[in-house]
Design brief:
This protein has a domain of about 100 residues. Helices cover about 85% and strands about 0% of the residues. Helix 1 runs antiparallel to helix 2, helix 1 runs parallel beside helix 4 and helix 6 runs antiparallel to helix 7. The longest helix has about 45 residues. The chain is rod-shaped, with a radius of gyration of 27 Å.
C-alpha cells in the first residue's frame, strides 16, 4: 500500500471526528512516512509497520467518543463507544454484544421496577383522596385507611431507595463499559 492509499483509507475511517483532530492525525501519519522514507524504507514497508488504516481510524473514533464522555453526556457517549467498538471485531459481536444487551435490559427493568414502586405508593394516596369524590369508580373495600396510608408511604419510600440504588448501579455499569472499551483499544493498538 502506498502512502496516498494509506492516508486516503485512514481519512475515510476518521469520519465523525472533528476536522482539526482529523488533520492532526493525518499530519502525524504523513510525518511517519516522511521519517520512514528518510530512513530508506519503502512506502509499502512504512504502511505495513503502521498497521491497518481501517482499525486505526476506528480506534481514533472511539478515542474521540471517549473524550466526549469526559466532557459531557456520559451515558450517550458510552453507548456510541460500545457500538463503535463492536464494529472492531467478530469477538466483540459474538461474545460481548449479548451479555452487554442483557445487562442493559436488566438495568432498564430495574429502573422500571423502582419507578413502579414509587408511583404505586403515590397512586394509593391519590385513591384515598379521590375515593369520596368518585365512589363508583374507586372502591377500597373497607380496608383500614391508616394501613393504606402507611403502606403507601412504605412502598413509595422503597421505590425512592430503589431509585437511589439504581443511580449507583447505573454508574458502575457505565464505568465498567468504559473500562472494557479502553481495554479493547489497548489490545487493538498493540
Amino acid at each position: 500500500m502506498t502512502k496516498e492509499q494509506f492516508l486516503l483509507q485512514l481519512k475515510k475511517y476518521l469520519s465523525g471526528i472533528a476536522e482539526v483532530e482529523k488533520k492532526e492525525i493525518l499530519y502525524d501519519y504523513e510525518e511517519h512516512f516522511r521519517i520512514g522514507l528518510e530512513n530508506r524504507k519503502t512506502e509499502e514497508e512504512i504502511a505495513e509497520s503502521l498497521g491497518n488504516p481501517k482499525i486505526l481510524g476506528k480506534s481514533f473514533r472511539i478515542d474521540a467518543i471517549l473524550g466526549q464522555v469526559k466532557e459531557g453526556s456520559r451515558a450517550g457517549a458510552i453507548w456510541r463507544a460500545v457500538f463503535a467498538s463492536l464494529s472492531l471485531g467478530f469477538f466483540n459481536v459474538s461474545f460481548i454484544l449479548g451479555p452487554f444487551a442483557a445487562l442493559a435490559a436488566v438495568l432498564i427493568g430495574l429502573w422500571a421496577m423502582a419507578g413502579a414502586l414509587g408511583l404505586s405508593g403515590v397512586a394509593v394516596i391519590l385513591a384515598l383522596i379521590l375515593e369520596p369524590l368518585f365512589p363508583e369508580v374507586i372502591r377500597l373495600g373497607g380496608i383500614n385507611i391508616a394501613f393504606l396510608i402507611f403502606a403507601s408511604i412504605g412502598v413509595s419510600a422503597l421505590g425512592l431507595l430503589a431509585a437511589i440504588g439504581m443511580v449507583q448501579l447505573s454508574k458502575w455499569f457505565f464505568l465498567a463499559a468504559e473500562k472494557y472499551i479502553k481495554f479493547n483499544l489497548r489490545i487493538i493498538k498493540k
